[in-house]
Amino acid sequence: MTTQNLLVELFTEELPPKALQKLGEAFAGRLLEQLRAQGLAAEGAQATPYATPRRLAAHITQVKARADDQPRRIKLMPVSVGLTADGQPTPALLKKLHAVGADAAAVPRLQRAPDGKAEALFLDSVAPGASLQAGLQAALHEAIAKLPIPKVMTYQLQSGTPLPGWDSVQFVRPAHGLLALHGADVAPVTALGLTAGRLTHGHRFEAQADPIEIAHADDYARALREQGAVIASFAERRADIAAQLQAAAAQAGQQLGEELTPIQDEALLDEVTALVERPKVLICQFEPEFLQVPQECLILTMKANQKYFPLLDGAGRLANRFLVVSNISPQDAGAVIGGNERVVRPRLADARFFFEQDLKKTLESRVPGLAKVVYHNKLGTQGERSERVRQIAHAIVNQLRQAQYPYTPEDKSAFDALDSKVQQAARLAKCDLLTDMVGEFPELQGVMGGYYARHEGLRDGVAIAIEDHYKPRFAGDALPRNHTGCVLALADKLETLVGLFGIGSLPTGDRDPFALRRHALGVLRILGEKRLPLELPALIAAAVPAFGSLIQDPAQPLLAFFGDRLAVSLREQGYSAQEVDAVLALPLGRLGDVAARLAAVRAFAALPEAAALAAANKRIGNILKKAEAEGPVDAHVNDALLQEDAEKALYAAMQATAPAASAQFEAGDYTASLQTLAALRAPVDAFFDDVMVNAEQPDLRLNRLGLLKMLHQAMNRVADLARLAA
């Protein structure tokens, strides 16, 4: 059967911009899925989504006017129930045939076939393929019903109903038109109180014709562009805006005599694409004196409130130029440019006012105000939280001291200075929550605290720590830039995790209202990438006392949570599940070693001896587990009790290799340590071939178990090698 391309469009009022791309893709994808399920779309059919502020549309290739007929077999009933002893149909069979659209004439055509332990009657027939009208109607209904609509509107139909205004419809926005074409023919379907036709509408102001008649499904995008001044494709419109932004930035840079680039913000680009039908990028400017305000404030207000694209120079400094994506293209753009410049000026003035007002009070003077801000009803105020962060930060510095002990007088002075800066930063870090600027733009917390700290002349290390203590804020974000910031960020995140786990407020499924997964990953990244000589169990233990009686000790579930997050992160980085399991089977220690341990495991797994040693290690683990159920096994060997040549050879090989492997391990060369131990393969294999571990003599048995315990401990310092066994 020949096929033609299909075009379906819903013309609506302005759709929610942040959801537009997802709505367009879901609409097209669902239509194609449903048409394929009904046999109306060929196997190679492709769907092209279209989405503008006022329409959702889909162009689907290779759609049939009628689906192919399909053979079907209907199970009726057991033969013993459907036929009498002489083969005549029973009343039950006739009733069943009538129910499936057949009659007594079909009895001779019934097929007998085994059905479980009995024999059943089956009716073979041909199911006619669905028509495009019926299939598309069902597909359209399903696609509309399953759209990922953020918030449904209810509105009343004003036409096409017996009583206008009485029939209600629920959709993301009121729909005013339905277009459905199969090739050049209208597909007679209905949706949302609308009947399909071939008419649509273009740009509100710049369309050459209204309405626009679409002659053929394949003419849709071209007709909208040429007659309607609309770029229907979201992807094409987005690419057009991106190209225009780069060209306009280059032009603005020529005006100022420097190279400028538009700020990179994919979410903003998506949102602006969803706000315009035919984009036109214009260059605007604001007074240079506004640049005295921290640029983060200006950038945020331009992006969040006006959807403008600020311009940055080569050093990342804000220029007094910005780009506007207009939905109209007037011959003289002066009025549009002037209007946008007038609109942005009060916003920038507000930012300047907030900043200047905030500078009138010091961060220290705001500390008492934190006691009036509730953090959590079970964990107290922000003031109490700041004190806990200070205590935890102090404990972290002490752990860093101990990790470097013994240390020189210079080291002591450095740690004392670090402790002083960390505690000062912890005391002031949350004070910007009480400022006007952060009250207006919560996204700037931390950033503004850094600006205010510098303005007050606080130590630069303190200011940077205040600014960075929320980092990393998201996946791929930068880490704190100095030691003070790292310690403070760790303390802040640990306070959140320990406190909320301690009161039982754990993330469940896809719900994580306190972003605990992000906090955990932040801790893991700081410890791992900064290679800090700190261990998670000790950090958690140091944080718990700061809460007093407010919480229960959350160490066990929190360590498991950290382990799960680390495993997910490592697998996302490309490590195999076996490699990750082998390394994380050991207690979480210094995370700075994890990358080196994984590299060592990967190198070990590539050795020809790896498979045999992993299997042997698994076997040893099982033997020791069974033996230790009856009592502890001491990792000690009495060489006088070694009788078999194989156990003597294994002990000698361990004496020769274990010290070198241990020295390499202590030096942090995990790869070399495992490669050294690989030499034990032959004596290990010989041991299991020739030696009975569970000897009847107790002293022999304990000695051999002690030998295996020594071997097990030596081989599993880097990772649990048994996890590599197939």
Write the layout of secondary structure elements.
Blueprint: E1 3-12, H1 20-37, E2 47-52, E3 55-64, E4 70-78, H2 79-82, H3 91-99, E5 111-115, E6 118-127, H4 132-145, E7 153-156, E8 168-171, E9 175-182, E10 185-186, E11 190-191, E12 194-195, E13 199-200, E14 212-213, H5 220-228, H6 234-256, E15 261-262, H7 266-273, E16 280-285, H8 295-306, E17 309-312, E18 318-326, H9 334-358, H10 363-366, E19 374-376, E20 380-381, H11 382-404, H12 409-428, H13 436-440, H14 447-455, H15 460-468, H16 483-502, H17 516-529, H18 536-543, H19 555-572, H20 577-584, H21 594-605, H22 610-628, H23 645-666, H24 670-677, H25 681-690, H26 698-715
Antiparallel strand pairs: 1-3, 1-9, 2-3, 4-6, 5-6, 7-8, 9-10, 11-12, 13-14, 15-17, 16-18, 17-18, 19-20
